[in-house]
């Protein structure tokens, strides 16, 4: 059951599938894929053991998504391997790799929800009308519990970088 008018895109109300992620609860399940010498999968279990920041974008081929990804890439550079940092979209893994290579995105791993949109549905981030993910950021502690969740109301706006980075840094 979708949440009607949960987000807007350039002012137009859109429906989000599923329930919103709640702070204090375990991260909802997902199976996302990436390309590294072949297609491989990532699940929440793969992110445990380190604090994790998840940047969710509609498509890396759009301007605001590129700004968001570059900004997090810059900000997270100093944290190195103390954290997991991922970008999630429905872009194909091959396109993600091309973008990250062209833009020197080295501090975020790109994970794709293109197969069945299970991340979008389970995390309440799938825009039903567009079959794209809404924009947002999530921070998980090393046990996989959600400690910060932002779903950007207007998809064309940038997220609150300072708030998500502060939540992440508190875990270090």
Descriptive report:
The protein is an alpha+beta fold and 172 residues long. The protein has a single domain, classed as Glutaredoxin, CATH 3.40.30.10. The chain has four helices and eleven strands. The protein has helices at residues 63-76, 93-102, 118-122, 161-170, and strands at 3-9, 12-16, 32-35, 39-42, 52-56, 84-89, 109-112, 126-127, 132-133, 136-140, 146-151. 38% of the residues are buried. The model has no long low-confidence stretch (mean pLDDT 96).
As an assembly, this protein is single chain
Kindly identify the CATH topology: Glutaredoxin
Rounded mean pLDDT is 96
CATH superfamily: Glutaredoxin
The class by helix and strand makeup works out as alpha+beta
The name of the CATH architecture is: 3-Layer(aba) Sandwich
Helical percent range?
A: 10-25%
Radius of gyration: 15 Å
Strand content: 25-35%
Profile the largest sheet. 5 strands, mixed
- The first-level CATH class name: Alpha Beta
Q: How many beta strands in the DSSP annotation? A: 11
Tell me the count of domains: 1
Separation of the first and last Cα atoms = 37 Å
Number of helices: 4
Features:
five-stranded mixed sheet, Glutaredoxin, alpha+beta, globular, 4 helices, 172 residues, two-stranded antiparallel ribbon
